[in-house]
Design brief:
There is one protein chain. This protein has about 300 residues and is of the alpha/beta class. It folds into 2 domains: about 1-175, Rossmann fold; about 195-305, LytTr DNA-binding domain (OB fold (Dihydrolipoamide Acetyltransferase, E2P), Beta Barrel). It is about 35% helix and about 30% strand. It has a 6-stranded mixed sheet, with helices on both faces. Strands 11-10-9-13-12 form a 5-stranded antiparallel sheet. Strand 7 and strand 8 (about 205-210) form a beta hairpin. The longest helix is centred in the middle third of the chain and has 16 residues, at about 125-140. The protein starts with a helix and ends with a helix. Residues about 175-195 have low confidence and may be disordered.
Length: about 300
C-alpha cells in the first residue's frame, strides 16, 4: 500500500506521468487499488482489449463522452488533434488498430478527466500513432492530468514521457539511464568488414558478419542481436558486446540498446526530452535516445558516415 500511496503522490501532487513495465493483470491490480485513494470519479481507463459502440461513427462516439463529462473541449478540435478529422464519419467497426487507438486517446482528451490510465498505449499501432500518443499524453500531463500507463515491453515503456518503473512484487523499481553504462565508444575509422562475431545460441555456434548486425537489445538480461529479420539470443551481456564492437560504428544509445550507426536513417524528437532512432528497412522499430545523448550521438553519426 505504501507504494500505491507513492504512486498517488506522483500523479496527484507532483503531476508526473508514470509508466510501469508490467503485465496487464498486474496493471489492473495497481489501478484497482489506486482508484479508491484518488477520491474522484473523474478518470478514464483505457484497457488493451477495450471495446466501443461499433455501429457509432467516430465523431458521434466522442461527442457522447464529451456530453457525459460536461466537457469544454470541442469535438472537432480533438478530432484534428488526434488525426481523426478525415475519419469522423467512419463507423468504429471499420477502423484499423491504429485508428481505434487514436480514437480511444481522443476519448481521453475530450472527456477532460483528472486521471487517465492506459494499458500498453504504444502496442500494435504504427509509428506515427505512437508518436502522436506520446506527444498527446505528455501535453495532458503538463496540463495537470494524472497519467499512468503500462506495457510488458521495456522499449515501449522507455518511449513514454515521465517516470518509468519496473513493477515487482516488492513495489516499484525506478528505471534509470546510467550515464556510466551509456558512455559512447571511441570509434575507429579502420574497420575490417570481413570481421565476424562468434555467437553461441540455442546449443550451436554461429559466425555473424558484424556489418549484418543492425542493433543489439537487452531483453530480460539477455543480449539479442538483430540479423536477417530476427532477434538472436547471445552469450554476451550488452556491456560485453559493446566492448567487442567498439571499433565498428556501434553506439550505446540507451542502457538497453546498441545501434549500428551505418543503418541509422532518421532521428525524430518525440517529446521535449526524448528522441527516437529509425533504422534502414525497419520502419516499425523505434529505439529510444535521451536528450542528453543527442549531441554525442550526432557527432558519432557524422564520424561514421
Amino acid at each position: 500500500m505504501h507504494q500505491i500511496e507513492y504512486l498517488k503522490k506522483l500523479i496527484s501532487e507532483k503531476k508526473v506521468a508514470v509508466n510501469l513495465e508490467c503485465s496487464g493483470e498486474a496493471f489492473h491490480q495497481v489501478i484497482t487499488t489506486l482508484i479508491p485513494l484518488l477520491e474522484t470519479s473523474s478518470l478514464t481507463f483505457i484497457a488493451l482489449d477495450d471495446k466501443a459502440y461499433e455501429n457509432l461513427k467516430v465523431k458521434d462516439y466522442l461527442a457522447l463522452f464529451a456530453d457525459l463529462n460536461n466537457s469544454s473541449k470541442q469535438v472537432d478540435d480533438v478530432l484534428k488533434l488526434t488525426q481523426l478529422d478525415e475519419l469522423k464519419k467512419k463507423r468504429i467497426s471499420t477502423l484499423n488498430e491504429s485508428e481505434f487507438k487514436r480514437m480511444m486517446l481522443a476519448r481521453a482528451v475530450v472527456s477532460e478527466t483528472d486521471y487517465v490510465f492506459m494499458e500498453d498505449p504504444l502496442g500494435t499501432v504504427d509509428k506515427s500513432t505512437q508518436k502522436l500518443i506520446v506527444q498527446t499524453l505528455e501535453t495532458m500531463s503538463q496540463e495537470g492530468v494524472g497519467i499512468v500507463t503500462s506495457s510488458e515491453s521495456f522499449r515501449r515503456v522507455m518511449l513514454m514521457p515521465g517516470n518509468s518503473y519496473h513493477l515487482v512484487e516488492g513495489g516499484f523499481i525506478p528505471i534509470y539511464e546510467s550515464l556510466e553504462q551509456m558512455i559512447g565508444a571511441n570509434f575507429s575509422q579502420q574497420k575490417d568488414l570481413n570481421s565476424r562475431l562468434e555467437v553461441k545460441t540455442e546449443g550451436k555456434t554461429i559466425f555473424v558478419p558484424i556489418q549484418d548486425i543492425y542493433y543489439a537489445e537487452s531483453i530480460d538480461s539477455v543480449c539479442h542481436i538483430y540479423i536477417k529479420n530476427s532477434l538472436v539470443a547471445t552469450q554476451f551481456t550488452l556491456e560485453e558486446l559493446s566492448r567487442k564492437l567498439e571499433s565498428y560504428n556501434f553506439y550505446r544509445s540507451h542502457r538497453s540498446y546498441l545501434v549500428n550507426l551505418l543503418y541509422v536513417t532518421e532521428i525524430q524528437q518525440w517529446t521535449k526530452n526524448s528522441y527516437v532512432i529509425s533504422l534502414d528497412s525497419l520502419e516499425d522499430l523505434t529505439i529510444p535516445l535521451s536528450k542528453r545523448r543527442y549531441q554525442d550521438f550526432l557527432s558519432q553519426l557524422h564520424s561514421a558516415s
